């Protein structure tokens, strides 16, 4: 929220969605009514100014006055001039309003909130409590002066006004615990009545509140002193509206262990887990708030858990203590001149010997309950009980606990006050979790709760004697009976008691105990025992799958799909894959559940902005069909969300997807949502429900690998890569299952495409994701072989096919076998010839033969027939290159230049055209010669193009891949070598020669000669004894290197003790270190390719097969006639009226539906095999453990026998 604050009273204070009106001190509501009519129009104009994106928002819809969190409608006939009645629930969604004193005037609501909540009211979405609490707090804007005034008006302290002397005390003490001198002036004497705080104390405005800062510790918190009769609603308003605490999702009331003791390590683990639960669930923890016993340890764990957390994630630890039991409480009282908020400096004196307690410095909030006494413990119990009861009975819309805030009492050790707290909690239907093994009253209750038989007073007393012998010995008989009665009352409600054993303390023991306690209390409550939906929400919140399966989803209860939609949405958002599977198994129709509102909610309010940013980067980097489609889909859902950072490309208008496309494929949209956010297990559950599982698995692999490349977080990128590999494995295993069942249907899956995956098919996605394992499996390779040979049988030897290229009459003699026979025998030969010559392999073979002939012709022209005027052979060469140009133009597409071989083809044709331009200038000898040189260089490019052709060979293909990867290694090696070469070359030239002006000779000395030295050519000009001055020039105007610098005796000046060692070091570094490093790099590259030799070759083979399958089925160079025909047909169509063809909708053909239905059956078989394999492995492991246990038992028996014999 952005605030504009004004200091003059009566001015509007504008926020983005709020308007605050401050009053003069002493003003009242009548001033509001006089002023509001004048300011109403200003406010409406301000609403339209601040909310221009909602012009249809009715600013005169209504007005509401809110005071003390209650909404009161204003009569439309009042002088305020408002026409319509007020809407309800201003606390959740407030667009504009005004505060005046304590009164809030609420105006219209934004349209997009209305649209969003309409789906929630229809029961399709679950409202977010965090959104509710955050917005409701945002509507309550208070300054420090307002807060001080609110506290002073609503919170009181108590002071004794009747001095009643305590006969037992030696000092002049009152029954309240204070000395007579500590009483206020005008205190009356009371000698007759028994002292009672209600009669003998009086309430005054509280004088102790604000921030508390602990000396020398730097810890700060909030505190308040209040009367024990304070209204719980007012206190709750203080905590939520003024202290800005979020509405709790859970209350954990900790009791027991108020005295100092050494906390057991297992108990410390339980406390740590308790704090973690509070932090993760957004809970409040209620304790005694003092720096002793369990409260002290809870404070320490709170401190340790919040050191590295942001303030929004801090644990809310609220200490409720008796004001009369607080040591050094005088420092908490405000100064008389403190008008604003007060900051108290509190000193913790642990070594001070008195019956009072120090406050704990790690609690975030302290509530100090005052009943006018001093030194009387447990005076806060009543207020704490009332506050807990009030919070637990508050109605919270769309709560996961039956519309209320749950509360649980956590018991550890303790004595009388702990027992009373448990008794009160049970009477208020609050579940209790008791730690057995923590001692005292907790062990008493835990042992009796587990005991069998009838509960008697003697058995209770026996347990008290066992666990509390000293305490029981000091009790009178009446007090003992009271203790027994309280324990019996507690045990009369066993469904409210949950016992955990301290020796079994684990990571999940506390969470399971609290969730089980809440569930038992909820399910046995008279009002909620039939609220199965509420019980299911509770178990979902705590991720208790076993309880949900055993207690709720029983055979005698039938669930409708609509009943599970709310919890299904929550399970998706909270990433509960096991619950999602449970709901699907119990009747949830996922396709009906996934309407447009649900998907919009998932992609807007439950979609990471970082994921969207990475998706946008990946789309711009790779620009393939799938990434573009997914980005458009996400952008379509997030149109109402403001994206903060947009690139320049995104500022243009974007043509988004058709909504009907998403509605046709809701499962795929949900699966993509889970995959993009790396929800590993959840995405697998959804994958099992989708149609086209093989395509979906490959699409997920492609998305995850693309996102992993653009993620800055290495760990997140590694997780994406791992999940991508898992989906690739799933696709391989599922396709293998399909292919083993039916080869033809499995091959149909490979070419099945779906618009939900950008219109790509399985092969395209696998290649884009570089899923070599999928491409290399036998089923895919057999399919590629069918495409490669066309109608020719794959059993036909290659040499037979090549022989028929030259002796094609052999085709009619049955020399070549085909996969099928023509229907009409009269046209048998015609079909055979057509099938043969249109086979991609035959086209490829013709192309290779004619390409080799083209290279031979090119070489002949360059070496023997390059005349001033082009000869017929050279013109024929021009025609062949033109056909190559047409071929490349036909193959051009969006990803044409992503293939380096296509870049090489384009470069070769470009050089050839440049050579023609120079070569045709035959009158200019230099231009003509330059053309010949360009042709020669171009011949190298055309010849190297043969390498790509031989990738189809099983033997040569992997070697070519090794060569390509080694070129990359050479590139990095050259960078390292260039550093040494330039360093040595410059130093050598500078030492030997002075002021060389010829650039070509500088290049020779600095680059060329050090490069030759790497191959063993030793430089001869660094040794003065062998230097030959006849091979150099001293003036630099000859075609010789510059002579070295000489001294007065005409001898080389350079110091040999520098030049010779310099050359030795250089040759050692380059010839031995760098060259061997390059060899090692080559060895690693060859080894990595050799490990997956067959897989890499099969993956590379796909590109060549697809290239020739997508070409025209006419061999080079006869394909030129097909291009001429295509051009003529294109020109003819331009003169005719074009007919628009409607794009076909995927999954609409019967063949696709049959294939997908068959794949679904194969998927079920595949999942059954996986589960059976997992169960078998677990059984084998269990059997091994049992055998190991038997051996250990035998060994123990043997050791006992040996020990007995030794005795």
From TrEMBL:
It is found in: Membrane. GO terms for molecular function: chemokine activity; ligand-gated calcium channel activity. It comes from the Eukaryota. InterPro entries: Interleukin_8-like_sf (IPR036048), Ion_trans_dom (IPR005821), TRPM (IPR050927), TRPM-like (IPR057366), TRPM_SLOG (IPR041491). Residues 846-1092 form the Ion transport domain. It is a multi-pass membrane protein. One of its GO terms (biological process) is immune response. GO terms for cellular component: extracellular region; plasma membrane. Its main location: membrane. Residues 551-616, 660-777 form the TRPM-like domain. The keyword Ion transport applies. Residues 222-475 form the TRPM SLOG domain. This is Transient receptor potential cation channel subfamily M member 8.
């Amino acid at each position: 929220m952005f605030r504009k604050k004004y200091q003059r009273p009566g001015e509007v204070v504008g926020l983005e969605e709020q308007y605050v009106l401050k009053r003069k001190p002493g003003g009242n509501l009548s001033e509001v009514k006089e002023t509001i009519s004048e300011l109403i129009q200003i406010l409406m104009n301000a609403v339209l100014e601040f909310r221009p994106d909602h012009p249809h928002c009715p600013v005169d819809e209504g007005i509401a006055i809110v005071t003390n969190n209650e909404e009161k409608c204003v009569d439309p006939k009042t002088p305020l001039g408002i026409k319509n009645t007020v809407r309800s629930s201003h606390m959740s969604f407030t667009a504009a309003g005004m505060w005046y004193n304590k009164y809030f005037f609420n105006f219209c609501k934004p349209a997009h909130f209305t649209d969003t909540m309409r789906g929630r009211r229809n029961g399709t979405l679950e409202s977010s409590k965090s959104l509710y609490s955050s917005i409701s707090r945002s509507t309550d804007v208070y300054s420090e002066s307002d807060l001080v005034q609110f506290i002073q008006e609503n919170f009181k302290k108590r002071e004794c006004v009747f001095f009643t002397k305590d006969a037992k005390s030696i000092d002049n003490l009152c029954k309240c615990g204070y000395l007579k001198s500590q009483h206020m002036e005008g205190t009356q004497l009371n000698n007759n009545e028994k002292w009672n705080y209600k009669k003998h104390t009086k309430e005054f405005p509280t004088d102790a509140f604000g921030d508390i800062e602990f000396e020398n510790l730097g810890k700060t918190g909030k505190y308040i002193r209040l009367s024990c009769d304070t209204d719980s609603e007012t206190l709750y308003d203080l905590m939520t509206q003024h202290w800005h605490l979020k509405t709790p999702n859970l209350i954990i009331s900790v009791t027991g262990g108020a005295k100092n003791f050494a906390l057991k390590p297992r108990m410390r683990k339980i406390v740590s887990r308790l704090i973690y639960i509070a932090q993760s669930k957004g809970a409040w923890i209620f304790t005694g708030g003092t720096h002793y016993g369990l409260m002290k340890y809870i404070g320490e764990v709170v401190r340790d858990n919040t050191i590295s957390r942001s303030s929004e994630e801090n644990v809310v630890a609220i200490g409720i203590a008796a004001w009369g039991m607080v040591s050094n409480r005088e420092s908490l009282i405000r100064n008389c001149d403190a008008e604003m908020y007060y900051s108290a400096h509190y000193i913790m004196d642990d070594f001070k010997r008195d019956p009072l307690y120090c406050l704990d410095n790690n609690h975030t909030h302290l509530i100090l309950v005052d009943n006018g006494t001093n030194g009387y413990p447990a005076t806060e119990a009543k207020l704490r009980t009332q506050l807990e009861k009030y919070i637990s009975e508050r109605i919270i819309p769309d709560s996961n606990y039956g519309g209320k805030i749950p509360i649980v009492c956590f018991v550890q050790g303790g004595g009388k006050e702990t027992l009373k707290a448990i008794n009160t909690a049970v009477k208020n239907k609050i579940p209790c979790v008791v730690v057995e093994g923590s001692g005292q009253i907790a062990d008493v209750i835990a042992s009796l709760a587990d005991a069998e038989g009838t509960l008697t007073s003697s058995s209770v007393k026996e347990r008290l004697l066992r666990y509390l012998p000293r305490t029981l010995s000091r009790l009178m008989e009446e007090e003992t009976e009271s203790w027994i009665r309280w324990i019996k009352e507690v045990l009369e409600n066993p469904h409210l008691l949950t016992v955990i054993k301290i020796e079994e303390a684990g990571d999940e023991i506390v969470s399971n105990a609290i969730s089980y306690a809440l569930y038992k209390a909820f399910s046995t409550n008279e009002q909620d025992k039939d609220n199965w939906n509420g019980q299911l929400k509770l178990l979902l919140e705590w991720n208790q799958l076993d309880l949900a399966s055993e207690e709720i989803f029983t055979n005698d209860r039938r669930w409708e799909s609509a009943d599970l939609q709310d919890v299904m949405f929550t399970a998706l958002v909270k990433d509960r894959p096991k619950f999602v599977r449970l709901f699907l198994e119990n009747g949830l129709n996922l396709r009906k559940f996934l309407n447009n509102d649900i998907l919009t909610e998932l992609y807007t309010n439950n979609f990471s902005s970082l994921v969207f940013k990475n998706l946008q980067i990946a789309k711009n980097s790779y620009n393939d069909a799938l990434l573009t489609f997914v980005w458009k889909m996400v952008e379509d859902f997030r149109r109402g969300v403001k994206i903060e950072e947009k690139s320049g490309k995104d500022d243009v208008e974007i043509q988004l997807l058709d909504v009907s496309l998403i509605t046709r494929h809701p499962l795929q949209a949900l699966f993509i949502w889970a995959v993009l956010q790396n929800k590993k297990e959840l995405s697998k559950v959804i994958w099992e429900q989708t149609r086209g599982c093989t395509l979906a698995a490959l699409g997920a692999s492609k998305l995850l690998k693309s996102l992993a490349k653009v993620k800055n977080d290495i760990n997140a990128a590694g997780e994406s890569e791992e999940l991508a590999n898992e989906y690739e494995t799933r696709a391989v295993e599922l396709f293998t299952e399909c292919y083993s069942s039916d080869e033809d249907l499995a091959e149909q899956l490979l070419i099945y495409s779906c618009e939900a995956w950008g219109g790509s098919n399985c092969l395209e996605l696998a290649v884009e994701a570089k899923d070599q394992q999928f491409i290399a499996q036998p089923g895919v390779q057999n399919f590629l072989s069918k495409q490669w040979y066309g109608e020719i049988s794959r059993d036909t030897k290659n040499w037979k096919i090549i022989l028929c290229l030259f002796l094609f009459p052999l085709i009619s003699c049955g020399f070549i076998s085909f996969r099928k026979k023509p229907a009409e025998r009269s046209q048998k030969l015609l079909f055979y010839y057509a099938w043969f010559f249109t086979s991609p392999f035959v086209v490829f073979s013709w192309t290779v033969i004619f390409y080799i002939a083209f290279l031979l012709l090119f070489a002949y022209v360059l070496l023997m027939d390059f005349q001033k005027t082009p000869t017929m052979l050279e013109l024929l060469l021009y025609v062949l290159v033109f056909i190559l140009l047409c071929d490349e133009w036909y193959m051009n597409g969006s990803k044409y230049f992503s293939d380096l071989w296509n870049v090489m083809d384009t470069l070769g044709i470009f050089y050839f055209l440049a050579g023609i331009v120079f070569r045709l200038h035959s009158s200019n000898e230099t231009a003509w010669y330059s053309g010949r040189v360009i042709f020669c260089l171009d011949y190298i490019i055309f010849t190297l193009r043969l390498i790509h052709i031989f990738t189809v060979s099983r033997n040569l293909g992997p070697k070519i891949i090794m060569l390509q990867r080694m070129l990359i290694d050479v590139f990095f090696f050259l960078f390292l070598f260039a550093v040494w070469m330039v360093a040595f070359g410059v130093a050598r030239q500078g030492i030997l020669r002075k002021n060389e002006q010829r650039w070509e000779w500088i290049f020779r000395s600095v680059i060329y000669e050090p490069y030759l030295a790497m191959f063993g050519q030793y430089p001869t000009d660094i040794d003065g004894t062998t230097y030959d001055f006849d091979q150099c020039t001293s003036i630099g105007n000859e075609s010789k290197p510059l002579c070295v610098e000489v001294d007065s005796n005409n001898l080389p000046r350079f110091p040999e003790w520098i030049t010779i060692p310099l050359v030795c070091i250089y040759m050692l570094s380059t010839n031995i270190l760098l060259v061997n490093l390059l060899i090692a790099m080559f060895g690693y590259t060859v080894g990595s390719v050799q490990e997956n030799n067959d897989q890499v070759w099969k993956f590379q083979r796909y590109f060549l097969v697809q290239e020739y399958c997508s070409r025209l089925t006419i061999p080079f160079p006869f394909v030129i006639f097909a291009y001429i025909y295509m051009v003529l047909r294109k020109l003819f169509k331009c003169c005719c009226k074009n007919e628009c063809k409607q794009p076909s909708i995927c999954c609409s053909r019967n063949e696709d539906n049959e294939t997908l239905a068959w794949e679904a059956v194969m998927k079920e078989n595949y999942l059954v095999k996986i589960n059976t394999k997992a169960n078998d492995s677990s059984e084998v492991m269990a059997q091994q453990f049992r055998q190991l246990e038997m051996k250990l038992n035998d060994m123990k028996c043997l050791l006992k026998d040996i020990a007995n014999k030794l005795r």
